[in-house]
Amino acid sequence: MADSRNERIQQFSSTGTFIATWGSLGTGSAQFNTPSGLSADSSGFLYVADTNNHRIQKFTASNLFDILWGSQGSLNGQFESPLGIDLDSSNNVYVADTGNNRIQKFDSTGGFLLKWGSAGTGNDQFSSPSAVAVNSTGAVYVADTGNHRIQKFTSMGVYAATIGSQGTGDGQFDGPSGIAIDSNGFIYVADTGNNRIQKFSPAGLFVTKWGAYGTGSSQFNGPRGLAFHSNGNIFVADTGNQRIQVFTPFSTASGDGDTDTASISCFIATAAYGSYLDPHVQVLRDFRDRVLAPSRAGRVFLGLYYAWSPPAARFIARHEGLRMAVRWALTPVVYMIQYPLLLGCLLVPAIGLAVGRRRHSGRSG
């Protein structure tokens, strides 16, 4: 984690046990001035946005200094207080060049590749972008902090979509400054000014939220950074409370202290089958992402579903009889989705039989 005010990086185990620390205030190699964003590549190299030194530093998996690049300015490869950083599957480095209101892309050795963005409120424009995240397909998501939204781009910087607007409602933001994407493509946003985390589907639809202002568990004071562990746990930098909070992907606490099964998004199916990873739920998830999410009508349906199903799922999860009834209802649907040819084989004879009976009754009349 970037311990910004102490000008150092600290390393902990997934259970919070301290492992190592390095760095101090300065401008030399392995020294920092308000380090902010962190990201690691597939070989364990760590990249650090050394914000007020206006540069990126790279370290080995053993925490040894490797290289650095950048200086203060607005030319290609220069920065103005970079905050966010992430890597794609090819170890290309994307940097939220915050003060220059743009995103810059580099290879793993710091070689400049491309840039996009300028100051403004339109598509492909930014107001102090502070975080960037790349999903498994190479799509780039940017926390456009001052514009209170998330923008999505291709790996070449072509604008694709916008999520959110300023406000306190579901899917709205107040200065979002952290973003992370899980292994299923769901988007998690640190909604900093609203002191909460929001989750969105891969299609950008609101799924759930949790958190409120405070110092208790699952409460926040200006949350900023988000990261995922390989086990799926969500780590949140609860900045104003000077701590890290960890949440499971299957049961995130909501702001009122309830357990929110909505965080797993296939709410009712997961409540019925008991696990987001159950094969029946996986079939439904795939149908949602492959069939429903790409269509306008499907997105409308999903929006309504996400609005009313979380409390229903919580109720179902607490009553075994209801869980069993919902399983009985959903299992035929799952098999129809999974085996559409079998459904056709059953429907064609049934329709033929119904038509035959109708004709026979007509002759009899």
Low-confidence stretches: 250-264
- β-strand amount: 25-35%
In angstroms, what is the radius of gyration? 24 Å
Largest sheet: 4 strands, antiparallel
Give the spatial strand order of the biggest sheet. Answer: 4-5-6-7
Helix and strand content put the structural class at alpha+beta
The average pLDDT value, as a whole number, equals 87
**Contiguous helical run count:** 5
How many E-type strands? Answer: 24
Shape: elongated
Taking the alpha carbons of the first and last residues, their distance comes to 81 Å
Helix fraction?
10-25%
Reading the helices and strands in chain order gives EEEEEEEEEEEEEEEEEEEEEEEEHHHHH
Overview of the structural elements:
The structure is a single chain. With 365 residues, this protein is α+β, with helices and mostly antiparallel strands. The strands form seven sheets. The chain has a four-stranded antiparallel sheet with strand order 4-5-6-7, with no helix packed on it. Residues 250-264 have low confidence and may be disordered. It has helices at residues 267-273, 279-292, 296-317, 320-338, 340-364; strands at 2-3, 8-12, 18-22, 35-40, 46-50, 55-59, 65-69, 84-87, 93-97, 102-106, 112-116, 131-134, 140-144, 149-153, 159-163, 178-181, 187-191, 196-200, 206-210, 223-228, 234-238, 243-247, 252-253, 259-260. A hairpin with a 4-residue loop joins strand 21 (234-238) and strand 22 (243-247). Helix 1 (267-273) packs across helix 4 (320-338), helix 2 crosses helix 4 (320-338) and helix 4 (320-338) crosses helix 5. It is elongated, with a radius of gyration of 24 Å. Helix content is 24%, strand content 30%.
